[in-house]
Design a protein that fits this description.
Largest sheet: 7 strands, antiparallel
Order of helices and strands: HEEHHEEEEEEEEEE
Number of strands: 12
Number of helices: 3
Shape: elongated
CATH architecture of the largest domain: Ribbon
Helix content: 25-40%
CATH class of the largest domain: Mainly Beta
Strand order of the largest sheet: 4-5-12-6-7-8-11
Strand content: 35-45%
Length: 200
Amino acid sequence: MAKKIILALVILILIILAGIILFGNNTVDIYNDGENISVETKTFADIDKRALNGEICNYSFEVMNDTNTDIAAYRHGIEDICRKYGLEDVEINIDSIIGPDQIPVVINVDGTSMLPTLQDGQKVLINKTHNVHVGDIVVADSDEYGGIIKRVDDINSNEIHLTSDNKNISYEYVNGILYEVSGISTWVDISDINGVAISY
């Protein structure tokens, strides 16, 4: 009788293990501290986890630098990568220094236009979002100025007005011509916003 019970338990355990192997519990855990990405894939499938994790890391860095990719698109991109490696029905857990389902990015301030709030070379943690409010400091791509970090001064529908905190005006001669040097004041589209500063 004891041998039958042991045999039944062994068969039950084998059935459970086979179910896990065949039907799932594939998970991808991603952590982002704003500068570094770590990825851990848990699966019983016979895949190259190192290559998969490396591809997800590379994709994550692309997302951090792309103004248009939000968390839903990021998750979808990870699902596509997993499918390429033969993983279906993957549970994707995205966590970060600022909480779950957020995309933090650390940037370095270049210049003095945000003095006294931000110093040249200072690191700023931004949350990659288009949810901006008047008074926020944001990172944006400007057609006129390139990548900038400025304060939101006004919002008109999808148009965002950005200004420098540094209101000092100086003058300099270039090739014998006197130029006024002052902070930036410009409009950008909401889609040009890379993120909102949350720690500096």
